[in-house]
What does this fold into?
Amino acid sequence: MSNVETKNQQYVHYLNQLFAPEDDALAGIRAEMAREGIRPINVSPIGGKTLHFFARLIGAKRILEIGTLGGYSATWLARALPAAGRLISLELEQHHAEVSRRNWAQAGVSDGVEVRVGPAAETLRQMQAAGEAPFDLVFIDADKDGYPQYLELSLPLLRVGGLMLADNTLREDILDANSTSGIAKYNAAVAAHPELMSIMIPMLHGHGFDGLLVSMKQSSG
Ligand code: SAH
Ligand code: MG
It folds into this structure.
């Protein structure tokens, strides 16, 4: 391991233990994911705390997550909700959904928390058609190719003043001006969108960095 990587890991460890210490429930979710053979591509503790912070900041009562995995980021978000709050998380894999439900029960956050299984784009269209009530916060963290579509389909479900957060949006491919990756498209679409006002928060990781794109819906078109 290079010196830079070692230093990076020290900073990540410092941030996690100081600002986002995990309790048994959160550590237990990661352990259960490992037992179930689910890849640990969840947000870091400080990444989870960042989501929690934004949800608390705006007093979010209704949260939509796209990409559940083992329910780790959802648990950080669910803990930001008031008693009657609601979190709906969309997930493609039945197995991930089952493990997440179990993890939420174990962590004591099951109340008002739900996972809907299927391709997220389809579920989002169903939600729109069914007249789903607006959300205060949307967190996009599923397949990266789908991001532009998730922007289009979830923005109408976000209230004015609400936040759209997108994980893994500061990656090397976006430096290529000709990049056609989902992330490059998403970042450009968000930046040009008249309804959105955005900032990128670079996030330190063990082996480098990535980013969380934070957009506020400032108007409705
Ligand atoms: N938010 C999670 C990590 C999500 S990883 C956390 O930080 O804890 C990405 C997840 O998106 C995986 O569980 C994957 O199965 C799911 N996914 C991939 N394609 C999808 C699709 N088309 N619709 C819904 N979920 C999808
Ligand atoms: Mg992610």
Notes: The CA atoms of residues 32 and 202 lie 28 Å apart.
